Amino acid sequence: MTRTSGLVFLLLAAQISASQTLTSTGKEFVVVFPENIAYYHPSSPENKIWITALHNGTVITISPPPAEGSPQNLIAGETKSFKMTQELGKLDFSNSLNSAPFEVFSISDKTINITSSKDVVVQAISIKNRSVQSALVIPADKLSLKYFLPPVPEIEGTTDQGVLVVNVTERGPFRLIIINPSYDTVKVAIKGGGEISGDIKSGEVAQIWVTNTSTSQFVEADKPVAVFFSHPCATQYDCTCGLLHAMLPPAKNRTMKFPVPPVLAEQASILLSDQHFKGYESFKSYSAVVQSAGTAILYQPSLLLTLIPEEEFGSCFVVPFIENKKNFLIIVVHKEHKDGIHVGKVPLNNADWQELKGTDYVSTNLSTSSPNTLIWHNSSTMAVYFVGNENNTWFGNPAPVVSVTPDFRGCAVTPEEINILYDAKSWQDSIQSCKDIGLHLISLSDKNLQKHVCSKLPKNGVQNVWIGMRRSSMTGDWYWLNRHPFNNTNWAPGEQVGDGQCGVMSLKSSRNCGWNDEDCCKTIHPVCYRDPVILQI
Ligand SMILES: *[C@@H]1O[C@H](CO)[C@@H](O)[C@H](O)[C@H]1NC(C)=O
Ligand SMILES: *[C@@H]1O[C@H](CO)[C@@H](O)[C@H](O)[C@H]1NC(C)=O
Ligand SMILES: *[C@@H]1O[C@H](CO)[C@@H](O)[C@H](O)[C@H]1NC(C)=O
Ligand SMILES: *[C@@H]1O[C@H](CO)[C@@H](O)[C@H](O)[C@H]1NC(C)=O
Ligand SMILES: *[C@@H]1O[C@H](CO)[C@@H](O)[C@H](O)[C@H]1NC(C)=O
Ligand SMILES: *[C@@H]1O[C@H](CO)[C@@H](O)[C@H](O)[C@H]1NC(C)=O
Ligand SMILES: *[C@@H]1O[C@H](CO)[C@@H](O)[C@H](O)[C@H]1NC(C)=O
Ligand SMILES: *[C@@H]1O[C@H](CO)[C@@H](O)[C@H](O)[C@H]1NC(C)=O
Ligand SMILES: *[C@@H]1O[C@H](CO)[C@@H](O)[C@H](O)[C@H]1NC(C)=O
Ligand SMILES: *[C@@H]1O[C@H](CO)[C@@H](O)[C@H](O)[C@H]1NC(C)=O
Question: What transmembrane ranges does the database entry give (predicted)?
Fold first, then answer.
């Protein structure tokens, strides 16, 4: 894109690269639907993929093609649902030594490839009568070589080893679902307990029975894989069972803090891959934040919800909607940043905030009734979960993160870019220097942008910087390069505007980013800028 010399102050470089790795957005995804035998109901499950486009002119390809809803061009903010018939189905025991946990390593080719011309987010849902589960799908380029397994929750009638009774069909181990999205065969191993290993060919998926071991377990692969933790029919109540399904997040190197939203925690256990807390009561006395160097999953009958660590908070999310169910979203945010949350265009006022004991976080839950909600923060980050419930049967997943860079204008799918160039040139030549790196010399016609840019630029480094402001030699009036009205001024205090025909902004901390006139031929560093792309739904 550029002919830049590379000598640019990349003021926001760290933030911009973080925004690419920490979102749920991508162009390639592999989706599988686990076996859903819930509720003893003769109907077959309805499996759907939801794709939300973030940019206009997004072209989707799904292979094999969906049963309903043909892929087409999507516009920014549009969510399309595609019905799929492809399901993983039963475990195949034929290649296994016996039917003991850890020895069943069953391979299927029932994967679905999604590719997109531009970044999208993908979620998968499976509905079978009352059993509903949804999962966030991590894009292929954000998958990892290592995943920590949570302890297997103890569910009466599902995992207990008691005498066989009538409800025996519900009884069985949890399974790991490991997908190989790459073009090569991948070697995977489950380590830390009853160690096993195997190969998964390109585009295939393995289902492996897992049970508890006394040590913490992890999956390790020689190429990136996706890992889900699942049970096709975990006992709930009233002689029913439901699908349990959650993605495992890639293993991290460090201990992370996971705030637990109180509304879900009341009847839940937290499954920590390096520890186990049975029930909320036992950790409420310490704090509503759990720490783990691995995976933290909230479990309550019918729901496995992967928790979001502080480091992975986002600033903008899309929240889906399942018809005929109670849908809501749960927000966790720092108590000083409750203001600034917006649902669509509307600021979130009058929310009912609950404290997370012993922390600086607060949480709220909001009912949603529209098919597709955009939720964003104008100055901070937060965690958002999509959850739903029907007759005490829960489902949900972390809402897909669309952006991690808060922006006062809205949901920034492509963050703004501000650079002060290293090359000091005349005002006229600076216009070209900015163009050369795909930006433009900044116009500060908008008061909010002036304030925002001022907060982002370093003070007491470079003293004066060129901005896109100039005086017409015909009329003598000041104008902006972007042609917006020059009706909002921010002249530096105590300065008499002199004979200079071009505008500079002062970055001395005492000058509050005030403007001044300057000789256009002086060599000064320019501030180059590109507006964010704001997503609207
Ligand atoms: C996408 O297209 C719609 C109209 O088709 C337009 O209103 C909108 O501004 C476009 N959005 C972006 C981000 O370009
Ligand atoms: C679920 O199954 C029951 C029993 O067959 C049936 O009466 C009910 O209508 C079904 N509900 C849904 C949402 O499909
Ligand atoms: C797995 O281990 C944890 C921690 O020891 C325990 O709380 C849980 O009940 C065990 N699950 C099963 C299915 O035995
Ligand atoms: C999906 O892509 C993989 C390669 O990444 C390929 O091996 C596999 O056959 C594809 N599956 C389908 C259903 O297109
Ligand atoms: C399943 O069987 C156990 C006895 O092992 C019993 O306690 C439990 O209530 C049964 N569950 C259901 C849902 O019937
Ligand atoms: C994990 O830690 C090691 C050593 O501390 C470091 O070299 C490596 O880059 C870290 N990996 C990640 C993914 O952070
Ligand atoms: C963020 O939104 C809140 C509430 O609408 C508002 O008071 C505040 O000024 C906004 N902050 C910024 C940086 O725009
Ligand atoms: C939020 O959760 C509480 C506690 O479960 C519940 O009473 C309330 O109805 C929920 N509010 C919304 C808007 O869903
Ligand atoms: C939910 O519970 C009510 C009352 O117990 C019952 O009438 C209704 O059929 C249930 N709905 C489903 C989908 O099971
Ligand atoms: C400046 O002009 C624009 C466009 O006419 C207008 O929307 C804005 O309110 C004006 N601002 C001030 C401070 O007068």
Answer: none
